[in-house]
Amino acid sequence: MYLWHASLPAAYMALGTALTCVAYSSIQPAIAFLVALLIAVGFSFLFCRRSPLERGLVIDVVCVAWVGIGISSIYSQVLNDGLMHSDGMRFFWFSTGEAFAGMSLDSLSELTEGAAAVFIWQRVYSMASTIGLSSNPYIGQLTNATMVAIAAVFCLKTARLLYGEDPSSFRTLRILVLSCGMFLLYSSTHLRDSLALLVVCFAIFCCCNFLSRPTPTALLLAVSLLVVFALVAKPIRQELFYVPFVLACLTTLSLAVHGAGSLLSRVAVSVISLAVFVFLLWYFSNLQEEITNVLFEQGQRYGEHSKASASHDSLGIALTQSLPYPARVALNAVLLLILPLPVWSGLELVNEYHFFKSIHAIFMYATLPLVLLGCSKIHSNTSTNPSIWLFLSLVFLGFLFATAVSSVENRHMGSFLLPYIVIASSVKIARTETMLAYKKYLSISFLLGLSLHFIWFSLKFS
Fold first, then answer.
1. Residues contacting 299, CB < 8 A, separation 6+
2. Which of 170, 212, 310, 415 has the fewest CB atoms lying closer than 10 Å?
């Protein structure tokens, strides 16, 4: 039975409501969820009216996230005496504290990172209070769930640009989105990553939309949207400021390798793209010192923070931090896909943050074979847009290594999972030969995972 069966959203609603209401000993979480669901349904009918699949995806993501919020609520309210993950607690404090109410975005930016997310949460908590709801974390978490649901729509739209209308692949994409542990983490905690995911997914979609129709008009629209992204990025996360410029470079490269369109439009677009590329080279050369600071100094800071905040049984992060720098970056890139190591280190009654990261590690072990199959069969699929496939591959690999350089936190990499999920969904898993190949790759994936855990066991008890 598939996850998108009509009865399952109702089951998710009931389970999430039961968990959250028990955790808070109140019926208010159920009221807040119904309001959030109505808003999500309204959004889906307003912006996805021509696609029932997109509308259903929005509702399903919110319902599954509600179960995650219920689990998070049990952790914070029952097991940890009202305490959340440290970052989540800090953002909740800024979002609900009377001392910060009514502050402008610029004023908030001087006080905290993620000011844009705090600015949005403040308005949501204020509106919730007008209908009699108390300022509890599940309101901010439901806001995050809605943003993740909208980001999921851009995943689906990007998949449609990559391989066209393919109901079988769309069903696979829906399963991947609903079972992704990192998306569940974003939507079930009081962190800013849901907003970062939304703007990154939108930017990637805009670039892919341009690559599907590379006309001067489409280029102007894409560049304009990337400029807007650059303007709003820093209040979300400082490092996101560089993302639109990197996306522009990768879009130009993908267009040069696999161009499309008429000769006139390709010449015009190539000239404009070259001008943009030259400007970016000049711009980045002036930001060399600042980029070095972000990549290396913050990399050290995140590394120390990750070692301090890792689960006490997890040796993956501690191991990488003791290696020479080049080897550390290479190993970090691999571990970012499968952390935590061991996978069960987050499945303990400590906090929801590590629990969801362990769920994500299981998701990655199961889906890495799909990505390998998607890459190996991409050229045999005539309906696939080669420039979009190249762009998505470069985005994922580029930001995987950028995250490996700047931090060892796979939560930061999660904002760039759209290419991974879209490429994985392109596999025709219903075909017998494809299913056999997937099972073979899956066996290899789990054998490698067992090998890594055997190494962990040896290091742990040697």
1. 405, 406, 407
2. 212
- Between CA 129 and CA 32, with CA 67 as vertex, the angle to 5 degrees is 15
Name the strand (E) or helix (H) holding 38.
Answer: helix 28-47
pLDDT tens, position by position, 319-371? 666 667 777 788 888 888 888 888 887 777 777 888 999 999 999 999 999 99
Alpha carbon separation from 426 to 151, 167, 259, 365 (Å, rounded)? 18, 11, 21, 18
The domain locations on the chain are 7-284
pTM score over 0.90:
no
CA dihedral 300, 365, 2, 138 (to 10 degrees): -20
CA–CA separation, 146 and 143 (whole Å) = 5
344-369: b or e for each residue (b if 16 or more CB lie within 10 Å)? ebbbeebbbbbbbbbbbbbbbbbbbb
| Residue 437 exposure: Cα atoms within 13 Å on the Cβ side | 17
Distance from chain centroid for Cα 261: 32
Tokens of 433: 């030969």
And the tokens for 407? 């931090």
